[in-house]
């Protein structure tokens, strides 16, 4: 039987509790709670697939990054540092992000495909994003992808 991502998180939480690692245990608890919340959302309870669990972890990691920025701007360095640490811990469960070169290559190819289909200039953004998104799902943040697409479309 293969271990699911959710059970790996649960095992890591148990290990963190035994090691009295407060940061890891609280971060994993919050993440598992978010996963459970997602499982019971809707009309009936269901088990999330690993891909859906990854989406929840990605969302949680993004929340941590945004909170860290907000705390840093508000002059609360200690909380910002904690949020950053939690975000980095969650990132260890996510697939490795694409490098800038890899992302540029994928977007450049998608821009060529969109041009071949007749979409050009800044208005082609939607068409290019439709091609790129499935290829980079979970491997690059949406804002980062959009910025590269915009840059390449403006030429």
Characterize the overall form.
Answer: globular
Provide the succession of SSEs. HHHHHHH
| Structural class by SSE content | mainly alpha
Mean pLDDT: 83
Characterize the biggest β-sheet: none
Please compute the radius of gyration using only Cα atoms.
Answer: 19 Å
Low-confidence stretches: none
Q: What's the number of helices?
A: 7
Fraction in beta strands = under 5%
Percent helix: over 70%
Number of strands: 0
Terminal-residue CA separation: 50 Å
Please tell me about this protein's structure.
The protein has helices at residues 5-18, 22-40, 50-73, 77-91, 100-116, 125-136, 142-154. The chain has 155 residues and is an all-alpha fold. Helix 2 (22-40) packs across helix 4 and helix 6 packs across helix 7. The protein is globular, with a radius of gyration of 19 Å.
Overview in brief:
The chain has 155 residues and is mostly helical. Helices cover 74% and strands 0% of the residues.
List keywords for this structure.
mainly alpha
Per-chain topology:
Layout: H1 5-18, H2 22-40, H3 50-73, H4 77-91, H5 100-116, H6 125-136, H7 142-154
